Amino acid sequence: MKETLYIEIPTFETAAVLTWLHQYTPIAGQKRNTLDGCTLSFNVTSGSNPISEELSIFLWSVQRSTYLKVFRWGDPVPAESAILKQLQHDLRQAFPHQYPEPPAIEGQSIFEALADRYPLTVRYFQKMPNGEYSLDRVYWWEQRWRESVRRPQTPKQVIFQQDSSDSSPIAYDLIYVGGALGVIHATVMARLGYRVLLIERLPYGYMNREWNISRDEFQSVIQLGLFTVAEFEGLIAREYVDGFSKFFDANNPTVAKAPVLHTPGVLNVAIDAEKLLHLCGEKFKAAGGEIWDETEFERADIGGDRVTIHTTHLPTERDRTAQGRLLIDAMGTASPIAWQLNGGRAFDSVCPTVGAVVKRGFEPEVWDAQYGDVLFTHGDISRGRQLIWELFPGRDEELAIYLFHYHQVNAENPGSLLEMYEDFFTILPEYRRCNMDALEWKKPTFGYIPGHFSTSGTDRRVAFDRLLAIGDAASLQSPLVFTGFGSLVRNLPRLTDLLDTALRHDLLRADHLNQIRAYQSNVAVTWMFSKGMMVPTGKFMQPQKVNAMLNTFLASWRRKLPKWPIASSKTAQAGLCLTAWQSRRRVKIRLCCCGSGSWPEQKTWCAGWAAISAFRSKPC
Fold first, then answer.
1. pLDDT tens for each residue of 120-151
2. C-alpha distances in angstroms, 136 versus 107, 109, 130, 353?
3. Coil, strand or helix: which one is 358?
4. What share of residues in the chain are helix, strand, coil (percent, to 5)?
5. Alpha carbon distance 475, 461 (integer Å)
6. DSSP per residue, 385-397
7. 165: which of 117, 259, 318, 552 is 20 to 30 A away, CA to CA?
8. How far apart are CA 429 and CA 425, in angstroms?
9. In this structure, are strands 172-177 and 318-329 parallel, antiparallel, or unpaired?
10. DSSP secondary structure code for residue 105 in this structure
11. CA-to-CA separations, 74 to 4, 54, 253, in angstroms, rounded
12. Whole-model pTM?
């Protein structure tokens, strides 16, 4: 028996595909329908003896998608290549990629509007505290992201440069817009003696993400004096023993299989995000900082020695303005400032990410709270995406579970949080055996994590006169390891020191501020790695291709570089500088020695990348 075809059909309606297959007329062979597909028989003559050869076609469903394989019994059948080519062509015509739009909400509650299209999403959000408010937030984020992706050439103008003769006193040195990650940076600056205002659209302290980090990485925050060692220990919700990375390889060739990669000390400290934010808020106010929450940024006027911020207080719909020496954009992925600064091309890639914090309900044999999943797949490409899981133990019996995929920014296919949530609630039992109704649903976790393909430290604009973007709004990181909380913590000492220098010496023009950036040279390589996990919109790839690439890389890494786990902060300090780019449809890599890594280790690292490039160069 030999496998002759393996494809993914981008629909969760497997019954419809089976009906189509039962009605399908192949170009050759005697067709007989079966419970999960069909067979094609061929009578051939070998010498003087008639024999029967057969192609067996069957379907199955996993990850809310449909898969088809064809096996041959015996020798190659007549016109086999033409039969399979026509079958694949006809399936693609009958079941093309579909990129659904979220329904409009017209005088309905969010639950009523989404119940027909996303029944499981509505069902389990209804089980969560403040579930209706949270699902409204999911819908809002998706709509805002779609609008920004689909109007890349005409981003909304929110920054205006004006002549100013205002000589009145300036109330603030720094105004931060975005209070989740922004408050950490703002608190450090307030403790340095600056007058700081923080503007947050939500009630302060609300979080739709959980944060994980390592002890080594968090030391930079402790050394800055923002938290004491005792306070850090009090922020730890859970510290687990080991983290696993494993990619599905049942359909991979032997060379592209790999054992579990163990990464103890990587993202193994779960931080109580809301507790951290509230503690930061207390320290921020104690240092003289001021918070305007439930306040939406509208625009900023920059002129003379100041920037004037126009906002709306959402509960009262009252306009509020404030003036400062410098505006910090910490609004994250959907920041209108970031889109305007970069001419509408704010990001090259994005990770639509959904998940939830759950408590209780998992059987003891399903999961041990001393261990986490750093990266895990339980299937191949699904409806144009390679779905990836993360699981991190939290406080008491809580688990934070995420589902995401790496995605090219595309106006036709922006990436949907709602579709991902329906996937999440449908396939979680496939990933971790569980009774969904036995789980205690604490809160959802969701967002768009951006990435920008930087090949140098100056190819992305992060500043204007008296304006600087930080964090995900700056997007100077790869979506693989340099995102959100981790990126901010890694770069916090450098960013705050440089900003302090700029403020003390009034170096607040765009050319000064544009040098305050979290760029690191090896981000280009990690971006190329994450790009290898993306399925281009409208394209079909071998279903196992991404998993095969990931396993090829991690197998090489595991054999030779156990000290450099992929998600560790040590990745950013490795003694190897690689620059990756594309030319004439080929990936090219330049190697430079720098830092502490030995040359044999560096050659091994390159060997892993060569293996990836070799695999990806094969035709689909």
1. 999 999 999 999 999 999 999 999 889 888 87
2. 13, 9, 10, 16
3. strand
4. 30, 30, 40
5. 10
6. B--EEEEEE-STT
7. 318
8. 8
9. parallel
10. -
11. 12, 7, 21
12. 0.78
